């Protein structure tokens, strides 16, 4: 079952690091079968207190693929780089449509 990873960039404190992350993360994400659905698209909040800045959604074939990517040795240094560039929230959502 498809899984979606939603990243919300709450605050970017080091744009140079964030740009380095953005350039280097894509090939690793693709190696784990991830496809970007959106990267920093415009947000139009319709309900609630959402305040996403630069939202990113990545689609994986399964939750296992998403978890493997996030926990991988390949992604670990990039995860650390991203976390050193600002404050983020992330959720993984299984694409259950039943």
UniProtKB/TrEMBL annotation:
- InterPro entries, per database record: Dimeric_a/b-barrel, DUF1330
Domain DUF1330 positions: 2-95
According to UniProt, the name of this protein is DUF1330 domain-containing protein
Coiled coil region boundaries: none
What SUPFAM superfamilies does this protein's entry cite? Dimeric alpha+beta barrel
The record lists the lineage as: Bacteria, Pseudomonadati, Pseudomonadota, Alphaproteobacteria, Rhodobacterales
Per UniProt, which keywords does this protein have? Answer: Plasmid
Species in which this protein is naturally found? Roseobacter fucihabitans
């Amino acid at each position: 079952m498809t899984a979606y990873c939603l990243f919300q960039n709450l605050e970017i404190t080091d744009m140079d690091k964030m740009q380095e992350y953005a350039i280097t993360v894509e090939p690793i994400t693709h190696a784990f079968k991830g496809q970007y659905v959106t990267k920093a698209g415009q947000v139009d909040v319709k309900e609630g207190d959402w305040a996403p800045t630069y939202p990113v959604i990545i689609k994986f074939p399964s939750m296992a693929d998403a978890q493997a990517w996030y926990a991988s040795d390949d992604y670990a240094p990039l995860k650390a780089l991203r976390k050193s560039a600002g404050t983020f929230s992330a959720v993984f959502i299984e694409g259950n449509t039943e």
